[in-house]
Predict the structure.
Amino acid sequence: VQSNSTSATADTVTADLSDRLARIVGDKHLITGGVRLRPHLEELRGRYTSACRAVALPADAGEVAAVVQTCAAAGVSIVAQGGNTGAMGGAVARAEQVIVNLARMNRVLEVDPVNYTMRVEAGCILANVQAAAADAGRLFPLSLGAQGSCQIGGNLATNAGGINVLRYGNTRDLVLGVQAVLADGRIWDGMNSLRKNNTGYDLKNLLIGSEGTLGIITAATLKLFPAPKRRVVAVAGVASPDAALDLLGRLRDASSDRLSTFELMANIAVQSAVRHIAGQTDPLAGEHDWYALIVADGTVDGDGDAGAGLRRDMEAGLARALDDGVLRDAVIAESESQARKLILLRENIVEAQNFEGGSIKHDVSVPVAQVPEFIRRVHAAILDAMPAARAYPYGHMGDGNIHFNISQPPGMDKEKFLAQWRPMNRIVHEIAHQLGGSFSAEHGIGLTKLEEMARYKSAVELDLYRQIKRALDPHNLLNPGKVLPAASASR
Ligand SMILES: Cc1cc2nc3c(=O)[nH]c(=O)nc-3n(C[C@H](O)[C@H](O)[C@H](O)COP(=O)(O)OP(=O)(O)OC[C@H]3O[C@@H](n4cnc5c(N)ncnc54)[C@H](O)[C@@H]3O)c2cc1C
């Protein structure tokens, strides 16, 4: 991993520093080699490998603070790490850095069903956060494919999105308070549970989405919602993204805006899952050019008949869309297990793409109304650049976030295909930009999108970012080289 950091930090983790860190977290919780190191080094997409040889696993915020102070005194920089499921190389560390992984800080501190909040330590696995909320009859709606291994601290640090953003917003919308260790080792306790709090600058929202560059998040207060009384889960087959957009609008209306999920999937992605993932079938009778996974949940007031009304509304909306030729076919889950199967289709298409050879990934958002235009233009431009490339688009259409991935042409050398990563990114990101979109909708910047930051962010914005970074981390000790492009790389 190349560093683009400009600060002068130590070039090695010395035996003395390791000893000091081991005294803070305990010998067992400082990993310096062996098989326990590996999961901390291997990055999801295999684009980067950490060379780091020191992973500290603190037990509480006090230990995190002590680790940060000790590293700072030695001039050694720190990479915060959660479940290491991030897609942008944000948790990758160089040989001379220390990884601080929050896995041991995994306690649910409190669930308050009356206040509709919960307080959790940053190392809680997202699925465990959801389960603790459900046990109290409440919903924590953040939901994404990696929820069995990503940590809530990592979710905050990346401002993760997922499949329920349409209704509940992204992580930033789900957080009321944050506790974090700052670059100088002080602990900032901003763990309030308030819905209204207009007192000063919003430090919490600076830390959320900062990918470990401004502070290490050690705990959070999360917003909860009523647990859904009834879920209606459907898959629809449509002829085009335009038809999907029409369907989205109709079902938002028909359900009184109770859609939580509206995911678009190209046929190639669905058939790839059917081919490669054991047990996966096409839920519809015939193949369709496009599929939509739709979830509505009945949690709002007035849904007094345990959600039966929601099902009637959704059935009526789908039937009208069928009559009007907007959709070709649809299936509604009859049971919770069928519902889970339909949702799994969307999750499986991600894994299925790995069986199609090399893939070039994108995580782009445009205004929702522009999604069909975006897909049309990108598809044409990609085929222009590489006629045999296979477009593999899918994503969170309900919030305008499309993963317009590209699978390699059959028979093409994988490395040769992957060498086109940057030019393909350029094509896709330019079109998103022209449509008023973003080159990173939910995955963040990490190491992967530094070039795009330099290209698409204004000089004013980059200058403000750098001033904020300098104010909070003057010695560039927290995840240096991530998020902010080197000044020389900017326009
Ligand atoms: C199958 C799959 C599906 C996915 N689906 C989605 C999706 O739908 N939506 C989405 O947004 N993402 C998705 N992701 C990406 C990933 O899961 C998210 O980015 C997640 O939020 C990362 O959490 P993590 O704990 O794994 O963080 P890591 O990968 O460990 O770290 C990510 C970044 O956060 C920083 N960080 C981690 N913990 C802390 C902390 N406590 N304090 C400060 N900084 C910290 C790291 O330094 C790094 O920069 C998916 C990933 C996979 C593998």
Notes: The CA atoms of residues 60 and 283 lie 46 Å apart. The two ends are 23 Å apart (CA to CA).
